Amino acid sequence: MSFSIKTRQETIKKLQTEELDLLIIGGGITGAGVAVQAAASGIKTGLIEMQDFSEGTSSRSTKLVHGGIRYLKNFDVEVVADTVTERAVVQHLAPHIPKPDPMLLPIYEGEGATTFNMFSVKIAMDLYDQLAGVKGTSYENYMLTPEEVIEREPYIKKEGLLGAGVYLDFRNNDARLVIENIKQANEDGAYLASKMEAVDFLYDNQRQIIGVKAKDLLTDDIIEIRSKLVINTSGPWVDKVRSLNRQGSIVPYLRPTKGVHLVVDSKKLPVPQPTYFDTGKQDGRMVFVIPRESKTYFGTTDTDYQGDYRTPKVTDEDVDYLLEVINFRFPEATIGIEDIEASWAGLRPLISGNSGSDYNGGNSGKISDESFARVIEVVADYQMKKASREDVETVLSRLKNSLAEKDSNPSAVSRGSSLEQEEDGLITLSGGKITDYRKMAEGALTLIRQLLLDNYGLSFREIDSKNYQISGGHFDSEKVEETIEEYTNKGMLRGLSRGDARYISDFYGSNAGELFDLIGKVNPFDNLTLTESIRLYYGLEEEMVLTPTDYLLRRTNHMLFGRDTLDELKQPVVDAMSNYFNWTKEQKTSYFEELNEAIAESDLRELKEGRN
């Protein structure tokens, strides 16, 4: 079923004219997961997303389906068991996306309590293998001597190196996981629209929510969408959505934190596999270094965030922190800001009072200088009538939640999730992490089906969500390599090089055949290769690509991991899209400027210029 600008207007018409059973606000991984299960259950489902699908948090993660081995140091066996079990489910649902990529965990002498020692890491990895069901397989853990570690990673710090453990982890393409869920929901009959912002709630006479007013950001039209139930899955924005036209102030559910990742050429930082280590700064944090295509990226930071949720920025402080950590662990790399080719910053929708990421450290309850300054600032603004009482209550509530936590920074506890229904009927599903998206959606659907039955007498089937594969993943998850090879051969028969055919097969899974079928049916775009042309055409026709940035940043990896060819690619992509959409000269210029701004932000151009 086509999913493009051509179908968008019809979708919006249906959203306006048909009463839905369920309206989802937010098109990240949480909303996409709910949409798949709801649509597959026969529930008349709509979803609106104010940006591009996954544009907020869900395209800005560490791009792993992480097993959380670090929790085993504190004997949090249940957390790890849940995580690795659900990770296996996600890999089954989308076998073309999460891919096994064993993680190297170097062990150093005398570096504090946050790092495993050689004895404890082996015990932890053996338990981890049992929980993950990989004991006795090719993915079973093993140990490396210092010499073997250095042979693999010649730039790594040698002083104090005792060796390393290697255990199974999975790389992920976060934005692709979202769009494949969205495409599957579309196939199953859901009405989904990006660039559509919820601006107000609709109420009945009993002050119960019966829908939303939404603004089409492509046309500025305001539409009304009526639905029996409305669920808020807007990630870091859940509290902002909860505040729409609500009486009185709300107690925030979330305490967002910001994570930053930086990308360099693999020649500057050669690592053959993901590597995970303590920062060495005694701050309780861990950092990843991960190879991807011909690049290496590293992160993450974990800092409280109260700025603009739409555009979290990488700051000088973020860069200095990560470069200090990387150059400490890889002293022979000597990486500077000028070596950074791309970057991204994202917000984590952490539940207040349970504000931990999957892999970092803890909060002692002390007030940070930043939080203290924020309190002073908002109180001063209130006295000068520049801030409302609600603004003050929000800051103080976050401060109270922070003080209630027991560990030492914004990332101590396993990230939980929350499912709540408020007095006016709004359902909010918040928190969680990518690995848990299917399980979170399953819990939400249990509540949704019960409410539709109790309040409307509507009964819907319960699907087996653990086995309901998504778009691109319709093949045997036990035969990933064989399937990719099969599709690769099909692509080669259609005239592609083995490298290009293999890349498309690995990237698009069971949808690869649809791309190969375009060869001979569509003409290559001017100044684009055949491979790039079929990828762009497929994105426009089947993946709701609406802007050049949608395509180059979230439907493909060009902006993050293909910076060397991006400058020669961007003009032909904009030209092709302009012809496809029949843009005016002004529209084409505007979209090209938007793309260049996104590239400049990823490049850290402003920060680099500020240091010259």
Automatic annotation (TrEMBL):
Residues 465-588 form the Alpha-glycerophosphate oxidase C-terminal domain. The keyword RNA-binding does not apply. It holds the Pfam family DAO. GO terms for biological process: glycerol metabolic process; glycerol-3-phosphate catabolic process. It is an enzyme of class 1 (oxidoreductase). Residues 21-352 form the FAD dependent oxidoreductase domain. The keyword Glycosyltransferase does not apply. GO terms for molecular function: glycerol-3-phosphate dehydrogenase (quinone) activity; glycerol-3-phosphate oxidase activity. The chain crosses the membrane at residues 20-40. Keywords: FAD, Flavoprotein, Glycerol metabolism, Membrane, Oxidoreductase, Transmembrane, Transmembrane helix. Its EC number is 1.1.3.21. Its cofactor is FAD. It comes from the Bacteria. InterPro entries: DAO_C, DAO_C_sf, FAD-dep_OxRdtase, FAD/NAD-bd_sf, G3P_DH_FAD-dep. It catalyses: sn-glycerol 3-phosphate + O2 = dihydroxyacetone phosphate + H2O2. NCBIfam families: glycerol3P_ox_1. Belongs to the FAD-dependent glycerol-3-phosphate dehydrogenase family. This is Alpha-glycerophosphate oxidase. It comes from Vagococcus elongatus.
